[in-house]
Amino acid sequence: MKKAICHYSFHRRWTAEKWTAERLAEEVKALGIECVDFHAGMMAPAATAVERIRAALSKTGLTLSSLSLGNDFNKENPKEFKAQVDGVKEWIRVAAELRAPVSRIFGGSLGEKERGDPAAKAKGRQRILDGLGAVVKEAEKNGLVLAIENHGGLPCTGEEQVDVIRAVNSPSLKATIDVGNYLEGNQEAEVGTRVAASQAGYVHFKDVKKIPDAAARFGRKLEACALGEGGVNLRACLDALKKAGFDGVVALEYEGTEAETTGVPKSVAHMKKVMKGY
Question: Which of 3, 110, 252, 268 meets the CB 3.0–4.6 Å disulfide criterion with 153?
Answer without folding.
Answer: 110
